Amino acid sequence: MSPTDAYTKEPFVSSIPLWMRTDRPRPTGMDYWKGPTPRSSLSANPRSILVDVHSVASWYGFAGAYSATKAALWSATNSLRLELAPRGVHVTGVHMGYVETRMAAHADGPKLAPGDLVTKVYDAVEANEYEVIGDELTAQIKAA
Protein backbone atom coordinates (compact mmCIF):
# COMPACT_ATOMS: atom_id res chain seq x y z
CA MET A 1 0.00 0.00 0.00
CA SER A 2 1.32 3.42 -0.87
CA PRO A 3 0.23 6.64 0.86
CA THR A 4 -2.14 7.39 -2.02
CA ASP A 5 -3.78 3.96 -1.77
CA ALA A 6 -4.87 4.40 1.84
CA TYR A 7 -8.54 4.83 2.61
CA THR A 8 -10.99 4.78 5.48
CA LYS A 9 -12.83 1.46 5.64
CA GLU A 10 -15.64 2.81 7.76
CA PRO A 11 -16.71 6.27 8.89
CA PHE A 12 -15.17 7.64 12.05
CA VAL A 13 -18.43 7.71 14.02
CA SER A 14 -19.23 4.08 13.27
CA SER A 15 -15.73 3.03 14.29
CA ILE A 16 -16.07 4.37 17.85
CA PRO A 17 -16.30 0.80 19.29
CA LEU A 18 -12.92 0.09 17.69
CA TRP A 19 -11.60 3.31 19.22
CA MET A 20 -12.74 2.17 22.65
CA ARG A 21 -11.12 -1.27 22.24
CA THR A 22 -7.90 0.38 21.08
CA ASP A 23 -7.90 2.88 23.92
CA ARG A 24 -8.72 0.46 26.77
CA PRO A 25 -5.43 -1.45 26.90
CA ARG A 26 -3.38 1.55 27.96
CA PRO A 27 0.22 1.85 26.88
CA THR A 28 2.90 1.74 29.56
CA GLY A 29 3.37 5.49 29.48
CA MET A 30 -0.24 6.04 30.43
CA ASP A 31 0.01 3.57 33.32
CA TYR A 32 2.99 5.52 34.61
CA TRP A 33 0.68 8.34 35.68
CA LYS A 34 -1.95 6.19 37.38
CA GLY A 35 -2.66 7.41 40.89
CA PRO A 36 -2.15 10.74 42.65
CA THR A 37 1.61 10.97 41.98
CA PRO A 38 3.85 9.59 39.25
CA ARG A 39 5.58 6.34 39.99
CA SER A 40 9.24 6.78 40.79
CA SER A 41 10.43 3.45 39.38
CA LEU A 42 11.35 4.91 36.00
CA SER A 43 13.23 7.92 37.30
CA ALA A 44 14.97 5.87 40.01
CA ASN A 45 16.97 4.00 37.38
CA PRO A 46 19.88 6.03 35.98
CA ARG A 47 19.12 4.84 32.43
CA SER A 48 15.35 4.50 32.28
CA ILE A 49 13.77 4.03 28.88
CA LEU A 50 10.11 4.10 27.91
CA VAL A 51 9.17 2.80 24.44
CA ASP A 52 5.65 3.44 23.13
CA VAL A 53 4.51 1.57 20.02
CA HIS A 54 2.39 3.73 17.75
CA SER A 55 1.61 3.03 14.11
CA VAL A 56 1.83 4.63 10.71
CA ALA A 57 -1.85 5.35 11.42
CA SER A 58 -0.78 8.06 13.86
CA TRP A 59 0.32 10.19 10.88
CA TYR A 60 -2.23 9.17 8.26
CA GLY A 61 -5.93 8.97 9.09
CA PHE A 62 -6.84 5.96 6.96
CA ALA A 63 -8.24 3.84 9.77
CA GLY A 64 -10.92 6.02 11.34
CA ALA A 65 -10.95 6.05 15.12
CA TYR A 66 -7.97 3.68 15.28
CA SER A 67 -5.86 6.38 13.61
CA ALA A 68 -7.18 8.94 16.09
CA THR A 69 -6.10 6.80 19.05
CA LYS A 70 -2.66 6.27 17.57
CA ALA A 71 -2.29 10.02 16.95
CA ALA A 72 -3.30 10.64 20.56
CA LEU A 73 -0.70 8.14 21.77
CA TRP A 74 1.95 9.84 19.62
CA SER A 75 1.05 13.18 21.22
CA ALA A 76 1.07 11.68 24.72
CA THR A 77 4.48 10.13 24.05
CA ASN A 78 5.87 13.50 22.99
CA SER A 79 4.47 15.10 26.15
CA LEU A 80 5.93 12.33 28.33
CA ARG A 81 9.28 12.77 26.60
CA LEU A 82 9.42 16.45 27.54
CA GLU A 83 8.16 15.91 31.06
CA LEU A 84 10.35 12.92 31.93
CA ALA A 85 13.60 14.08 30.31
CA PRO A 86 14.66 16.17 33.35
CA ARG A 87 14.31 12.98 35.44
CA GLY A 88 16.64 11.07 33.15
CA VAL A 89 13.94 9.03 31.41
CA HIS A 90 14.43 8.58 27.67
CA VAL A 91 11.16 8.17 25.74
CA THR A 92 11.11 6.67 22.24
CA GLY A 93 8.10 6.31 19.94
CA VAL A 94 7.87 3.53 17.35
CA HIS A 95 5.95 4.02 14.09
CA MET A 96 5.44 1.24 11.58
CA GLY A 97 3.01 -0.35 9.17
CA TYR A 98 1.90 -3.95 9.46
CA VAL A 99 4.05 -6.36 11.44
CA GLU A 100 3.86 -10.14 10.97
CA THR A 101 1.56 -10.81 13.93
CA ARG A 102 -1.88 -12.32 14.50
CA MET A 103 -3.31 -8.80 14.57
CA ALA A 104 -2.15 -8.23 10.99
CA ALA A 105 -2.91 -11.71 9.63
CA HIS A 106 -5.84 -10.31 7.61
CA ALA A 107 -3.79 -7.59 5.94
CA ASP A 108 -2.50 -7.78 2.40
CA GLY A 109 0.83 -6.32 1.41
CA PRO A 110 4.27 -6.24 2.94
CA LYS A 111 4.72 -6.90 6.64
CA LEU A 112 7.69 -6.20 8.84
CA ALA A 113 9.29 -9.15 10.64
CA PRO A 114 8.98 -8.67 14.42
CA GLY A 115 12.69 -9.35 14.94
CA ASP A 116 13.62 -6.66 12.43
CA LEU A 117 11.47 -4.13 14.27
CA VAL A 118 12.97 -5.09 17.63
CA THR A 119 16.47 -4.61 16.19
CA LYS A 120 15.52 -1.14 14.93
CA VAL A 121 14.10 -0.22 18.34
CA TYR A 122 17.22 -1.43 20.18
CA ASP A 123 19.48 0.44 17.75
CA ALA A 124 17.44 3.64 18.12
CA VAL A 125 17.45 3.46 21.92
CA GLU A 126 21.22 2.85 21.96
CA ALA A 127 21.65 5.92 19.72
CA ASN A 128 19.39 8.01 22.02
CA GLU A 129 16.90 8.55 19.20
CA TYR A 130 13.36 9.61 20.00
CA GLU A 131 11.65 8.01 17.04
CA VAL A 132 11.79 4.72 15.16
CA ILE A 133 10.57 4.52 11.57
CA GLY A 134 9.97 0.80 11.16
CA ASP A 135 9.42 0.39 7.44
CA GLU A 136 9.41 2.03 4.03
CA LEU A 137 5.66 2.77 4.02
CA THR A 138 6.00 4.71 7.26
CA ALA A 139 9.03 6.58 5.92
CA GLN A 140 7.04 7.56 2.80
CA ILE A 141 4.04 8.77 4.78
CA LYS A 142 6.19 10.75 7.19
CA ALA A 143 7.99 12.39 4.26
CA ALA A 144 4.73 13.25 2.45
CATH level-two architecture: 3-Layer(aba) Sandwich
Give me the CATH superfamily.
NAD(P)-binding Rossmann-like Domain
> In percent, how much strand structure appears in the residues?
5-15%
Q: Which strands sit side by side, in order, in the main sheet? A: 1-2-3
Our count of helices gives 6
General shape: globular
How many strands appear in the DSSP assignment?
A: 3
Write down the CATH class: Alpha Beta
Uncertain runs are: 1-8, 28-38
Compressed to H and E, one letter per element, the order equals HHHEHEHEH
Please render the helix and strand layout as text.
Elements: H1 16-23, H2 28-32, H3 41-44, E1 48-53, H4 65-84, E2 89-95, H5 114-126, E3 131-133, H6 136-143
Helix pairs in contact: 1-4
Structure description:
Helices cover 40% and strands 11% of the residues. The protein is an alpha/beta fold. It has a single domain (3-33, 47-143), classed as NAD(P)-binding Rossmann-like Domain (Rossmann fold). A 3-stranded parallel beta sheet has the order 1-2-3, with helices on both faces. Strand 1, helix 4 and strand 2 form a beta-alpha-beta unit. The relative contact order is 0.17.
